[in-house]
Structures are given as C-alpha cells and as structure tokens.
DNA sequence: ATTATAATTTAGGCAAATCTAAAAATTTGT
DNA sequence: ACAAATTTTTAGATTTGCCTAAATTATAAT
C-alpha cells in the first residue's frame, strides 16, 4: 500500500499501542521495551509482540526482534493526532460539561478514538483553540505542532523560588482529588519557603496561604518560575 | 448471571444489532426476521444468527429458531439508551459545532457507543434537554421515556391541509441535501394546494412560496397539521 | 399433498486481539 | 567467559465477529 493514510483504518487497540509507545518514547530517548509497553497497558509481553508486528507491517513503528520499538514519522503523527483529540475532549468535558479534572481522563480515553476531522476541528474552535488541557499538558495543533511549555517540578527548584502552578505529572484521580481537597489548583502562585532536610517535605506559600507538602506531592507538581525582574 | 446490568459490558457490535432490531421492531408489531436485520446492517444472515444467539444468551432478545427475534425488556431499555445518545449527539453537532443535518449521522454512529452516564446527562443539560433531534425524531429521556410526536406524512394528508414540517422519514444525506437545495426545512409552514392525478406530485405552498414536489419527496416529509379553529 | 422457493441455521474457516506455557535471545553477575 | 537471570519471542489456544457453502426448516405454488 503506497501512500496509505491509514488514520481511518486503525483499530482502537492499534491506536492505544501507538499512544503508549509515544508516551514511553518521550521519556528515554532510546527504543521502547516490550515489557514497558505491556506493563503500562496492563497486558502481556506476548500480546505486545504480536501487535508490534502488525504495527510494523503498517509502517507505524520501527522494529527489529529483541531490539525494542520506536515510532516512524507516520506513527508519530498518528500519536499526536490521538493525543490532540484526548486533550481537546478533556477541555470540553471540563469547560462545557462541568466535569472535574479527575473525571475526564476515563471518558477521553473513549472519545479520543472517534474518527472525524471536522468534529475535532470544530471542537477546537468551540473551545477557542486551547493550548493546554486541564492537567496542564500541551494540546498539539491540527498539524501536530507541539509547544512543550517550559516548566519545572516543584521538588527540583531551589528555595525561595516562586512560580505559577502549571501542571501535574501524575494525573490519577487520587492525586487530583488530593489537590482539590488541599486547595491546590493550576494557576495558583506557589513559593518554596523551606525544605525539610529530614524527609524532603516542603513548606510552601500558595496564593498567600502557608502549607506543608511532602516530597512526593512536590515531585508531581509543575511550576513555571516567575520572570526574574 | 443474575441481575446483570450489562449496559457497560456490551460491545459496539452488540449495541448495533440491538438498535437495528429496535428500529425494525417498531414498524411491524411482529417478530423481526433474520434477513431484515442482515439487509439493514449490510451483513450476512448467518452472521446475524450467530449474534442473535449471543444476545439471547445475555437476555437481550427473545429467540426461537426459525421464529424471528424480538427485544426483551432489557433489550428495549438498552436500545432506547443508545438512541438517546445518538440523537443527543446529533443535536450537539448541529447546535454547538455547526454541522449541517446531513453530516451528523455518521459521527453520531460512533459517539452513540461512548459509555458514560455523566457524559450524556451533562450533554443533555448543555443542550437544554431537547425533545427532538435535527431530523425531527424524538429523544428518549434519561429513563427511556419516549413521546412519539403525532405527525403525518405529507403524502397522506388531504388537499388543503396545512401544517408545520416536523420531520423527515428518510434521513439520508442525499435527501437532506436535496431539501436544503430546495429551501425545505423543519419548522416551515406547508400547505397542500393540489395533487396531480397523473404522477401523484404535489403543488404546495411552503412559507408562502409555491412549489411542486414529487410524490416520493412528499412521502418522506412529516407534517403536524395545524390545529383546526 | 408434493414440490419448488425462500428463509434460516449449521458447519467450517478466517482475522484481530488476547492469553499461557515453552523456547530463544539478550543482559547481568561473578 | 560462562552461568544465571531477565527479556523477548514463538507456539498453540480462545473469543468475537464475520464470511462461504451446505443443510435444514418454513412457506408458497401447483
Ligand atoms: Mn488524560
Ligand atoms: Mn490530560
Ligand atoms: Mn442518525
Ligand atoms: Mn437523527
């Protein structure tokens, strides 16, 4: 098949594999391991091998036995398309249907597989072309254009650093509900006041209010440091 | 399986069969034939038999070999849930995303399978609880409540009858585009002025404008007759 | 009442996506 | 360098959903 724009022929399962490989490929720059895919997708390595072969057949991934897998240009573009849909739907659910940020992911996992360019582009327009999803993750544009916002983990910045909370690393419902309960949200001004040597916990000031958070919490919050004067 | 609320375990294919059986069951009051299902779903009778057995196993349909099939109470409720979703999504596409009424069906066929009560009920609220979809078909409420609007085919009403165009029987893109081209839309006032004996074509007045339409067209337009004084 | 026709079901097979168990290749530890 | 541990792949089975071809049952025609 020459020039196979296979976007519309892909199964849901294939799309989910491509998306997972994309996410795993971002972290390390190297090839993605079969076991890593299996673990993240809660499936068996043998199933992964099967699927990888099919994806390789369709020119979505580069694959050599025992050597791990990586996305081709086509695979990458496909992944960005799915992620665009996922994140736009998440914005829709929050902005238009009053979902909370811990409820959107599950439904977006389904909606991201709906096939219609017109649908997703109209949705984009309805939402006024948002650049970030409810968890602070960037939304690829129509052409897969991606602006990775420059941000740092709260746990990694030096003392006295102030900035805006712009994202979460873990976007599990558990963590998000924890943040809600403690009044931590995207957009808040956060300043690191003190770091406990003993357990790495942080004393922070968040929108003027003082509180203490564990290292684990801090290592799952992204801030964008305030512009130095 | 006792008390199996299987709504969330159903496959897309199963849902499509249930929906088709529902639609076919509405017309004639009797059992639905295997061949009728196969034809409407563009599949083979043997495939239908296969699926019917599975659905029967799950208590969604009543089935006796060679005797046709009908929905159980559970099957009926399931069908109404899917149709509710389909039609609400169609309204969404037209009202919020500026789709035209001939573009919505295909996408709604996909969206109707998204599983989330919260999603569909929020969508219902966003749309202000619409009672009819863009083609004039009634939208079941949360509990499957259905108000079949009383309406008649334009081809069946006597001469001089006037009424509002409230629906289409055929909602194929071809027919809908034809109506667009000829300035016929839901909400128009239509009055039958004359019926040609030769070919059954009708002279009508539509929102004041006179035009002639074939019998085929008239037999695919529903009107609600004006209240007599 | 047979026979012909039509509808439906069965039998057997195939592709996608998964699994378990076993084999093969790679990596690690000494 | 070689054995042990780990990772990955293969082999073979299962389920869903579909197909073709053949058999069965029901219906219509004479
Ligand atoms: Mn998500
Ligand atoms: Mn997100
Ligand atoms: Mn429709
Ligand atoms: Mn409709």
Automatic annotation (TrEMBL), chains A, B:
GO terms for cellular component: cytoplasm. GO terms for molecular function: DNA binding; DNA-binding transcription factor activity; protein dimerization activity; transition metal ion binding. It is found in: Cytoplasm. Keywords: Activator, Cytoplasm, DNA-binding, Manganese, Repressor, Transcription, Transcription regulation. Residues 10-72 form the HTH dtxR-type domain. It comes from the Bacteria. It holds the Pfam family FeoA. Signal peptide: none annotated. SMART domains: HTH_DTXR. Homodimer. Belongs to the DtxR/MntR family. In the presence of manganese, represses expression of mntH and mntS. Up-regulates expression of mntP. This is Transcriptional regulator MntR. It comes from Arenibacter troitsensis.
């Amino acid at each position: 098949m020459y020039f196979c724009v296979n976007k519309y022929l892909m199964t849901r399962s294939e799309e989910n594999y491509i998306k997972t490989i994309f996410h795993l490929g971002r972290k390390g720059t190297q090839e993605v391991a079969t076991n890593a895919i299996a673990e993240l997708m809660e499936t068996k390595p043998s199933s992964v091998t099967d699927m990888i072969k099919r994806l390789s057949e369709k020119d979505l991934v580069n694959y050599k036995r025992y050597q791990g897998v990586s996305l081709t240009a086509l695979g990458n573009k496909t992944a960005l398309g799915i992620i665009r849909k996922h994140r736009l739907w998440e914005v829709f659910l929050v902005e238009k249907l009053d979902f909370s940020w811990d409820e959107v992911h599950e439904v977006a996992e389904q909606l991201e597989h709906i096939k219609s360019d017109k649908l997703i582009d109209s949705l984009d327009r309805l939402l006024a072309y948002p650049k970030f999803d409810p968890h602070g993750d960037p939304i690829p544009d129509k052409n897969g254009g991606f602006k990775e916002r420059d941000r740092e983990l709260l746990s990694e910045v030096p003392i006295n650093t102030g900035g805006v909370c712009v994202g979460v690393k873990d976007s599990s419902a558990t963590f998000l509900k924890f943040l809600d309960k403690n009044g931590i949200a995207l957009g808040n001004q956060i300043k690191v006041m003190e770091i406990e040597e003993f357990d790495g916990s942080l004393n922070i000031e968040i929108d003027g209010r003082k509180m203490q958070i564990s290292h684990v919490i801090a290592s799952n919050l992204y801030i964008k440091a305030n512009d130095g004067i």
